[in-house]
Amino acid sequence: MNEQRPITDWLPLTMKEVEKRGWDEIDVVLISGDAYVDHPAFGTAVVGRVIEDEGFRIAIVAQPNWKDDLRDFKKFGKPKYFFGVTAGCMDSMVNHYTANKRLRSTDAYTPGGQAGFRPDYATIVYSKILKELYPDVPVLIGGIEASLRRVTHYDYWSDQLKPSILVDSGADLLVYGMGDQPLRELLRLLKKGVPFSNLKTIKQVAFLQDAADELPKNKSWETVELSSHEACLEDKIKYAANFKIVEVESNKWQANRIIQYAGDKRLVINPPYKTMTETEIDQSFDLPYTREPHPKYKKRGAIPAFDMIKFSINMHRGCFGGCSFCTISAHQGKFIASRSEKSILNELEQVVADPEFKGYISDLGGPSANMYRMQGKDEAICARCSSPSCIHPVICNNLDTNHKHMTELYRKVDQHPKVKKAFIGSGIRYDLLVDDFNKNNNDGNHDEYIEQLITRHVSGRLKVAPEHTSDATLRIMRKPSFKYFHKFKEKYDRISEKNNLKQQLIPYFISSHPGCEEVDMANLAAETKDMGFQLEQVQDFTPTPMTVATVIYYSGVHPYTLKPVKTVKTREEKQNQNKFFFWYKKENRDWIRRRLQQANRPDLIEKLLEEPTSESQQKKPMPKWLEDRRKKK
To answer: Which family does it belong to (predicted)?
Structure first.
């Protein structure tokens, strides 16, 4: 496909490409930690295309070498307006290291999956280099790394509290969250001649100013002050209390401005924009993407992250789950921004036109696949709400969880003559489909959706994420009781049997999450074994900036109650919890037996290892499921 297109269809990566466009100057240079894939699933492409759409001449420096003579940073010279900096689609530390702080051997956002093409703390490294080379050119930072490190945050990899990334990077301005709206406003103001240094009253930006300076005036904003960075260093409870304020303000339509002092500077975080309208989100997705990596990467090998999403379509942004361990709502927001059906079906036409398309859509989804077009029934209620989740501890009565829009859209995609199958590869929120938990299923549209999903859109296995079996741990996770997963599985099995389908249900679980103890993991292993699962998909909790769970991990208290929560921290404790997932491995049997003997849990030894103990035999007869299994053997 690349060979058929002129190189000018991509945003320029080299001076040669700039010259081919006939430009004698660049307005904005964008530095990215990812390879340049011109596709709406990649933030660098979206930001680049938005800048282009506003009439600016944009060039991209993708994965610059930060160790040599820095020629990559100099190749376009000095831009007219500013440098933009992003670490890429992931926080660079999450990209580089496992939960055990081991260096990863691959990078999904680099050609050939090669590691080592971006630095640790990429946003800081890139910004500092630019400030040294071009001290008088403004630097604007954004993307998930900058967004989630905008205030004092715990950094798991250095095991310390760090100040706002603006302090360490020296950048002039930070755009947090999904940056389409603030970026467009900022560009329009620059076009009108407003100096970059005056862009201090745009929503959804953050900046540092001298503590003695006056706050920029805005009559419609109230201001809330956090405990200073220095106070957080001295008192973990103050750091935890800060988080609650930041999360609450991030989830409000009429939010307050936030300030925090760090040394002789004041951090100012302006309130976020209201969620994008359908027209606004369509505008971002409908830009003229080539939907391909830049041709320069052809000889270096495939880009794994692109291969994964090449034939997928993202229908919406945002997630109202508010899970304690997840950064999606912190970055994309809890309110759903849904694309129009027309925009989605137009993208479908682009996907099926690809010569490599073989008839299979890999994913028709979003952060949580089944939240498309879901919103509050009465917007006035949403406007007053500051809850971090619309579905925890219970589903809000004001939330419209109608799945009909999705069911109809799936059918339209299904009917396309070039589509053999359209799969739902994103995880679904199964709790929205359980009537005992979701009382908003008035006309049975959930049942119609799940039947459509199971019979037409599962590629052999459906991924769902109950995350745990312990109610106490699930409450901290902001997830529903595991009993609802049982009910979902019953429905799933019933529909599968009725349609003579043998498709696996794959549940995801997390070990070492705050509030989870070793015996909880043993119970999880026993309960899932009893349900017929032999788990392979296992995730060890990784503390990432700007999540409730990370705040608990570092401070030892829940940010909303400030009450202590027990959390495992050492590598040995974390590995011990993880081992229970793999009860079926011979090398773990002796260890599991010993740990459960120490915990005085003969019942769990019996369930996991199928070894009746003398104590359990005295207490009760062998359970029927074990007796049946023994007979079969």
So the answer is: Belongs to the UPF0313 family.
